[in-house]
């Protein structure tokens, strides 16, 4: 399936946020029956690292909403998705494919409320395929018959987009590679490349900024900032077309006043607690912008097509 119409959708979605000064905007969520705010965090990275990243953010969210905020780190993407579907989570920051997976199972479960704009102005990011620099592998042609690492079956950049774009290049992942594996997340997938467990692996990045820094944001940048990756050890093999940045989603029945408070609060944190916000997002962003379901219709269609194709193969 070709991702037609994707770039125009990214270009027009959202609206600019202005600088936010003064005191943090707050709301009393207890008036809507909230006793706490349960935040789902995607798996695929060391749970302790994720909790440490959010240490500065949780008190800010608690103050923002007037109830204790708690984070729940799932072992994989599916865990967070199930938490949203089962209403044991109020919030999550998903990848586009993760949101599509939730939407296709229950369109009334959650609603996207905002996403990040890159420093370049784009509302998207990229999937990239990398190999170990000393492997001698620098082209897709050299990966024929080799071992490929995916991040997670519910990851957009770590599975869905490569599986859609590569066949358009004449590369059928099912037959081209000698073997494909899921490494259990983006960080684990890059580590698998570095350790020689896979010959190449896909991950996500802003695709803008300096290669030596892991670009401006994304998994590579987070790994560089944590001191567990030197970009000289990797070679870039392939970069995808622009993918819509993943949405912050909340339960669909969340009152609009709370949605507005979260959006205003995130803008405030970005303007006033920049180091904390950059830790949460894994690098630099320009601003937060509002979006809705229409921003992800192309990704929903792509994921639906993959599901239907698998059903046909199994029949």
The overall pLDDT, averaged over residues, is 91
Instruction: Write down the domain tally.
Output: 2
Order of helices and strands: HEHHEHEHEEEHHEHEHEEEHHEH
Integer-rounded radius of gyration: 19 Å
The main pleated sheet reads as: 6 strands, mixed
Helix % is 25-40%
- Helical stretch tally: 12
CATH topology of the largest domain: D-Maltodextrin-Binding Protein, domain 2
The share of residues in extended strands comes to 15-25%
Number of strands: 12
| Corresponding CATH superfamily of the largest domain | Periplasmic binding protein-like II
Please state the second-level CATH architecture of the largest domain.
Answer: 3-Layer(aba) Sandwich
Strand order of the largest sheet: 2-1-3-11-4-12
Structural class: alpha/beta
Q: Report how far the terminal alpha carbons are from each other.
A: 20 Å
What's the overall geometry? globular
Kindly provide the name of the CATH class of the largest domain. Answer: Alpha Beta
List low-pLDDT spans: 1-19
